[in-house]
Specification:
By secondary structure, the chain is of the alpha/beta class. β16 (about 365-370) and β17 (about 370-375) form a beta hairpin. It starts with a strand and ends in an 8-residue tail after the last strand.
Length: about 525
Amino acid sequence: MSRIKTALISVSDKTGIVEFAVFLSERGVKLVSTGGTASMLRKAGLEVKDVSELTGFPEMMDGRVKTLHPKVHGGLLGRRDVKSHTDSMNEHNITPIDLAVVNLYPFEQTVAKGAEFDDCIENIDIGGPSLIRSASKNYEHVTIITDSSDYKLVISEMKENKGATTLATRSALAAKAFARTASYDAAISTWFAREQGEIFPPVLNFSAKRRQILRYGENPHQQAALYTQELSVAGVISAEQLQGKELSYNNIADTDAAFDLVSEFADPAVAIIKHANPCGVAVGKSLTQAYEKALACDPVSAYGGIIACNRELDEKTAKLIAKIFVEAIIAPSASKKAIEIISAKKNLRLLITGEVPGPTRRQMLLKSVSGGILLQERDHITLSDKELKIVTKRKPSKKELQDLIFAFTVGKHVKSNAIVLVKDKATTGIGAGQMSRIDSSRIASWKAENTATSVKNAKGSVLASDAFFPFADGLISAAESGITAVIQPGGSIRDDEVITAADERGIAMVFTAIRHFRH
């Protein structure tokens, strides 16, 4: 046990601090504080000693220097069980500080709101992290609070233990405090590198906050947790879950993939995802029409999938979705009637994001490998028909061009090797994740010809390939199913053979000079 007799309070976020300070004062704890915090506590009728009174030095340099003093850090760092420490404290009239309540200048929030460079610099806290680290290092004797949500914990402990805290609690709070200063420094270093034009800094620092322990990972024998970054874009991480079971590891991954896909489109769009791959994607004049078209691509695979919408989930669409079993629905909003309909299926998760992020947003993606981390930009490239190179004798029609661009956009979100067949801005067949492109082509064609609705969809469809055709066989296989146009990056040493095969079959083909591998 470590009884709290003196507390140092220096907070930027003053949520709950007056109530907590009143509690401390009522139990005879002497309060030491700084600047605005001290003024606030005095206005509440509390007796507070200024740090400048403790140190004998005034705050100076616009508040940059106020707590960086031996009488402050000696009071935090001095070990009560080491005679040389206590002798030094007595010799230099250093008062032991038993509790430090410190949170930091709002650097992350200042950057997020687009503040000027100088404002960001002034919101880099120096004294705060120093106080936190000193108190945390001496956790055997000092309690450190960096989060207002922990006031209740310390109040409860002090009530139970006659004004003292337990070693277990001090240790846990110290670990949390060190994590806070680490994340703070990471945010500063990342911002500073970006300001210097460094996309990939020499040292990569990033932090994330644990949001929840998941039931399990990809499989029941794997442990997993969800971490969030402070400035995440609209999506599954920031979404409000209105109902349904807790999201699993796979649910989160699939829901993220689904919402990322529908975010590509301006028109009403629906994507149905299964095991991180789309099994149906479409845009329509309404969300209902988009859903019906997406489901028609592969209604069998849609069972147990994830559905993403880029429009408010309306009553009519909700009724249709409710007819099949799906794991989760994610949308920017949902009407009251839609929510009522979905609520009848108590295990179905309904996630509301509030907005839809733009398709061209710049975002960094992390992937772990043994002993390291891969870092890359999100695939944010979008295409227009003006950027396409027509390489065949027959030019694609206006409608084919629209379908080709739609198909190539969907292909960005399909595991490689990826082949996507599209008709009327709806997928008709998808071949994903195969080791050879011809196998993906065959699967896409087979899917198009063997839907549960018995609709022969391949004929009249266009085809998108996420990378070039190394041989003409993949194109020839798809051509046999009745495709009319192809979009692909080009760049193979056998491009001429592929173009000739297309010309011989009256197929229009365009090159993008851009590939969309997804691993």
